[in-house]
Amino acid sequence: MKPWFARYTAHGMTQSCLVMTFIGVAALSAMACAAQAVSAPIVLTGADRRPATSLNGEWGSIADPYFSGLFSFHHEEKKNGWFLNRKAQPDDPFPTEYDFSKAPKLKVPGDWNTQRASLLYYEGPMWYERDFSYAAKPHDHVYLRVGAANYRSWFWVNGQKVCEHEGGYTAFACDVTVALHDGSNFVVAAVDNTRHADNVPTLQTDWWNYGGLIREVSLIEVPETFIDQYDLHLDRGEGSVIEGWVHVMDGPPGEKVEVSIPELGAKATAITDADGKALVRMSVNGLQRWTPEEPKLYKVDLSAGEDAVHELMGFRTIETRGTEILLNGKPIFLRGVAIHAEAPYRTGRAYSDQDADTLLGWAKELGCNYVRLAHYPHDETMLRAADRLGLLVWSENPVYWALEFDNPKVLAKAEQQLDEEINTSRNHAAIILWSMANETPNTPERTRFIETEASHARSLDPTRLITAALLVRTEGHTKIVDDPLGQTLDVIGINEYIGWYEGHPDLADTTQWKIDFQKPLIVSEFGAGAKAGLHGSKDERWTEEYQAEVFRHQLPMLNKIPQLRGMSPWVLMDFRSPNRPLTGIQDEFNRKGLVSDQGQKKLAFSVLEKAYKDRTIGKAD
Ligand code: GCU
């Protein structure tokens, strides 16, 4: 086994740096060397299945609207910024004007907007700091794993920069080994949720721009060579074979990989190639396929050298045949609902098992077998709950509304987030659809952008279906689905609001549909706003009766669409949005929820529940 420091050459540190650091020359040279240790963040598949040291809890926090903690007034990145977490010294020539230990606390995970009234609208850089102790162990890599930081984030350990990341809804891990001390340490993060035109998503969204370390933060230790990514799935052609691959980071070619499913007595070994990837095929006689009705999960053990991951996975196949969606070879109708990652009751970004169980519990009460997790990748608690509860999932990359589709940097950001989404979550049986976008304008630049994104998704994961939520055109009483992007998709998603943004509920009765694609169609959004507890006539907008009336007219209309294969009415629960100011009704919440943010079920909830449970919507499956 190589000595612990030999590996750093693989991470870009020079031998000379190692020697200097190793013999402990001046702190400055170590600092200078350590600066070279900043490596790009990686994606750890199944990170939530690994033992971890949680860094959740209270962190000191300082809002820094001008980002003066990182940038000088010449806009140069500082070498002695707030990330050094310096404590005031009596003989300091200058007063230290920031001290995290005196600063107010923010809970991690959690957005800052809903933790402090003064931060509800805050948009800008926020500094976080916490101390932690660490006992050096005979392992080789320690990663700081961040479930999500919205939107841009920078991280330092003991004053040494360890990585930075862009993207507000995907997980990443930073190698912090070189910066760790045995004993007491501190980690500083800067998170900036400022919206920019070339961000993904861009300036305008219909949800609150909750900023911060919005999902779990932990330390994960892995041996010198370790499994960073893997993909295991049923071979569509041969129902009793699991195929896939396991990637070993920093491993020499020829490393042995083992995959086993003890309950089935199944085991496979494979050898890594020059790229560290080992191809796996394993016969699995007697395997019970995962279905929404019986979401069977198996313990799956993966190992390579000293590393091991103990997964919990379901196995199923998903494909289309003509206009049908086939789950395990049988046609299925997706009885769903759309869900934002808004926390029930407390509001703000959802992040806990309890949030997931509440939201998906309501979806199960509705009679759903499917959920559209809009408009960005949700966290592992939601996906684990969907695997466990038997809810098929539409997962979405936040290519939302009018991005800068002609900007190659924006495409690179969208692909990076897609990489992180797919490589983090590719082993969840529940996920069947990767959505590329939502309601993007039909322009040639947009179509090229999303075609590129879709082929990237297919290259990452050929086992799932590609979709997007498209806008539809209206000619008289006919809705026309002819967005050229439909050519690229496996499953067509469309959003429409007949009865809310278009006419009255009974307009649905006389609306025809013209669909230019012989492919499965999901109505990915329809609905209406209602304030929970506001009652009146069914013609009075914002009443629960009006919202229920929209559903009563929408459902029979949609049932007439021959290739309708699913729906996800907008939306399960009211969610915060700055676009929805109507005082006394919206109060900065989008009120199209079937349930209020305080858990009050509206009349439309039971209208949809009856349609799903009586199977009066969609073909019975
Ligand atoms: C759009 C959009 C949603 C939005 C909804 C609405 O379809 O996709 O994000 O919240 O309409 O207007 O409520």
Tell me about this structure:
By secondary structure, the protein is an alpha/beta fold. The chain folds into 3 domains: 183 residues, Jelly Rolls; 91 residues, Immunoglobulin-like; 295 residues, Alpha-Beta Barrel (TIM Barrel). The protein is built from 8 helices and 33 strands. Helix 3 packs across helix 4 and helix 5 packs parallel to helix 6. The radius of gyration is 25 Å and the shape is globular. The N and C termini lie far apart (56 Å). Alpha-D-glucopyranuronic acid binds next to loops.
Largest sheet, spatial ordering of strands: 21-22-23-24-25-28-30-31
CATH superfamily of the largest domain: Glycosidases
Give the structural class: alpha/beta
Percentage of residues in strands: 25-35%
**Proportion of residues in helical segments:** 10-25%
**Shape-level CATH architecture of the largest domain:** Alpha-Beta Barrel
Q: Write out the distinct hetero groups bound to the structure.
A: alpha-D-glucopyranuronic acid
Q: Tell me the number of strands.
A: 33
Q: Supply Rg.
A: 25 Å
